[in-house]
Structures are given as C-alpha cells and as structure tokens.
Design brief:
InterPro entries: Cell_Envelope_Struct_Comp (IPR051465), SLH_dom (IPR001119). This is SLH domain-containing protein. It comes from Sporomusa silvacetica DSM 10669. Residues 1-23 form the signal peptide. The protein folds into 2 domains: 24-111, no CATH class; 118-416, Porin, CATH 2.40.160.10. It has 7 helices and 19 strands. The chain has helices spanning 2-21, 34-44, 64-76, 83-95, 97-103, 108-111, 305-311, and strands at 118-130, 139-154, 157-168, 174-183, 187-195, 202-215, 219-229, 234-247, 250-259, 262-263, 274-275, 279-290, 293-302, 315-325, 335-344, 351-352, 372-384, 387-397, 408-416. It is globular and about 75 Å long. The N and C termini lie far apart (73 Å). Residues 5-26 have low confidence and may be disordered.
Amino acid sequence: MKKSMIITLVLVFVLGIASTAFAGPFADVPAKHWSYDAVNKLANAGIVGGYPDGSFQGDRIITRYEMAQVVAKAMANSDKADAENKALINKLADEYAQELNNLGVRVTNLENKIGNIKITGQVREWYEYVDEPATGDKTAFKNRLLLYMDAPLTKDLAFKGRYFAESEWGSSAETSLDQAYLVGKNFTFGRQPIHLGKGLVYSWGANQDGVTVTVGNKVKVTGVAFKHDLGSADINLAGANVVYDINKNLDMTLVYAKTKSQNLAPFGLGLAGRGTFNDTWAAGFGYKGIKNIGITAEYGQNDSDAAKLLNGDTAKAWVAQVKYLGADWAKPNTYGLWVGYRKAENGFLAHTGDLIWETATNIPTGYMMNNVKGMEFGIEYTVFNNGIMTLQYQDFEDEETGNINAKNFTAQLRYMF
C-alpha cells in the first residue's frame, strides 16, 4: 500500500510540473487576437493551408501551440510570399517565438531574409498583324524582357522595382527602370504600376511617379496622384479607386480620375487649347460564381474638355469579357478561352495598356479605348511549366463611322524564370 501511494504521489508531482511548464504553449489565443486575421490573409495568398487538422475554423479558438504550427508552415513557405506577407510572417514569428522554439523552429532563419533582394523575370516573344496599321508595316515581331526586384527593407516596408527592355527582332533594345517604389502597409510611393477599377479608365504598368494611399478592409478606398510622361505630353492625374468585395464570388469597383488643365495639342487627335484630358468615372464588377466561368465588365464616362472637343458631349465606353477556365503557369496543358466586347466613343481617351486583354499597338484608332468598337476572341495554353502561349483576334473598327478597319491578330509566348 505504501509503495503504491509513493508511486501515485510521484506521478502527481511530475504531472504537476509538466502542466506548469506547458501552460504557456497550450494557452488559448484570444478570439479577437490579430493572429487569426493574419493567418487568414496568408491562407488567401496560398502560403498556408489551414490549421493542423487541415481546415480553417474561424469560429474555433485554438491554442498558441496550434497557432505556432501554422506559423511554422508559413515560414517554410515564405519564398511564396510577397514583401507584405513576409512582414506579416515575421510579425507572427515574433509573437510565437517561444512556441516555435519549442517546436524546434529557428526564427532567425526567416529574419535573415530581411534585406535580401529577390529577382524574377519574364520574357515575351510577340507577333502582331494589323489589317490597316496606323503607321508602317502590317506585321511586327518584338522581344521583351522584364526583371522584377523585390527587397524587404523592414517588417512593414519593402522595395519593388522592374527593369524593362524591348525591341523589334534584330534591333537594339529600348531599356529603362520603369518601376522603383516603396510598398508600406497602406501606401506606395515612387515609380509604379497604376491600375484603376477593372482597367477601363487607367491601367499601365510603368513610369507613373507618385503615391497611393489605401484605407479600409472589406471596402478598400485608394487615393492616387501621379505624373506620367507620354513622350509628347504629360499626364498629371489624381483620383480615387473603390473596391468592394461583396462575397467570395462578386466584387464591385468604382473609379474617379481627373487630369489637371493643360495644353491639349501635344496629345494629338486634332486637339487644341487648354483643358482637362480626363475627367472620368467608371463602375465595374467581377463575377466567378458560375463553375469555370469568370465575367468582367465596366462602364465609364469622360466629361473632360478634350472629350467635349472630340465628341461634342460626354464620351462613354464599356467593356465586357467572359472567360472559361484559364491557363495556370505551374500546370502544363491547362488552358483558357474568352470572348469580349468593347465600345468607346471618340473622346473617351482611356490610358490602357493591359486591361482584360492585350491589344495590338499599331491599330489606327489611336488610343486603345477611344473611338473603337468590336468583338475579341482569345485562347491561352500552358505549353510548359511557367510558359504560356496566347492567341487573340480582335474584330475592331472605329466607333464614330465604322469605316476605319482596326482588325488585328496577336500571338505571344511568355515564360517566367
């Protein structure tokens, strides 16, 4: 009896020490703790796949030990994260450093990556044919190289840059550093890409020097102000962009953008005098609630001085695209098909480079979303890992008279490294 009592007391003593030692790691993470939102954000970015049981259960309180397991997975996948998400992983690693240490995960492994620059790239071989080109030959062959730079500076700040080189086949390349900017928690500053709404009003990947500031969560409001040198003229634009994620399948966008009053003659198109080039708003949506189908559409109006000179009134435009499936960079033999329509009155004057399509650069209507209408058809196919072939035909003409032939065909092979 005495022997069994002694064994029992020893077990109670040992278990008591153990429960005290592990009380911290197995304590619950409070329901409103910022960690839950952080992990959900990493999950949406594809960096983590869920809690230890493989699921996300936002209505269940988990322990610090369980959360540390999720953070460890995020650290292991940190190479997939952009600068903002890397900073979030670092913040989580700091919060759960003790639990991670108990798991045998070295937090310093991730911290050592801060300050290192990551370089990736894309090559594009491009062919276009335009029935009645604005200038020169009907056909063009081009080669483009993009080198992307990504360098975390602090936990909450990163640098992004892009080196651009493009040329006609057999010719010397035009080169530039067309992106170089800072990314903070809710702002960007420097030479950066600007994309407003669904892209109808303004969407250009290079050489905008300015600032954006974003507030909100489910409804995100972004203010933008920048300058862009077009060569013959400058665009000095300020505006606002609103994105509302109604649910996982539907989002809405609202855009307003206005340029300062300036000499309009350098823009061409027969413009003269001083005034605004853009005084434009647009509303759009994206919907993916039908299996394998994505729908994108946007409508806009330009009430600028330039629009009134060219159109006599407000110039209107709208675009729509329906896409089936989509080529996946990481999965050879995947593909996507789409059909679209656009109509833009003379004077809409959108500055659009890569909207929900890519347009031949030498079409005779001038701006890609000005005085143009017609259908488009496209297909994309992943020919090898990180390599996509895209073919597109656009049956366009001018919107004003229907007499200008802007039919064009493009083919491109893009591959990432």
